[in-house]
Amino acid sequence: MEKQFRFQDFDIWRKGVELSRDLFKLADDLEIRKLFRFAEQLRGATLSISNNIAEGSGSVSKADFTHFLNMSRRSVFEVANMLLTFSLHGYLTGAQVQPALPRLEQESRMILSFMNSLRREFPAPCS
Predict the structure, then answer these.
(1) Deepest of 10, 12, 80, 125, by most Cβ within 10 A of its Cβ?
(2) Distance between CA atoms of 115 and 12, rounded to whole angstroms?
(3) Is-above-0.85 flag for pTM?
(4) Structural domains of the chain in order of their starting residue, each with its CATH number
(5) What is the C-alpha to C-alpha distance for residues 17 and 1, in angstroms, rounded to an integer?
(6) pLDDT tens string for the chain (127 positions)?
């Protein structure tokens, strides 16, 4: 696919989209079990990871971009919480959930690293 948008160059966006493919399959499993609300929540939070990276890349300031990256990272934690909770309640198995957790942790670390690089490149002004 031809790159037309800035966010397509970011590994954090590509990893988020790849992760969503597998997490959407878990949401499909929840739907099969008629857990529609949980499936919807999982898809929404998962999509927020890459959506906030994409939206933030269109910001006119580094501070605004960092804000959207923070929102994306928070969505990573939201997804991890949902997966762990669904597993604890028996809605998904540990075997279904376990492969996603290290990938979510990696995505979180990558987003934080990117945020830190933006801050180093453009530090906040001293008052």
Answers:
(1) 12
(2) 11
(3) yes
(4) 10-120 (1.20.1440.60)
(5) 14
(6) 678 999 999 999 999 999 999 999 999 999 999 999 999 999 999 999 999 999 999 999 999 999 999 999 999 999 999 999 999 999 999 999 999 999 999 999 999 999 999 887 655 554 4
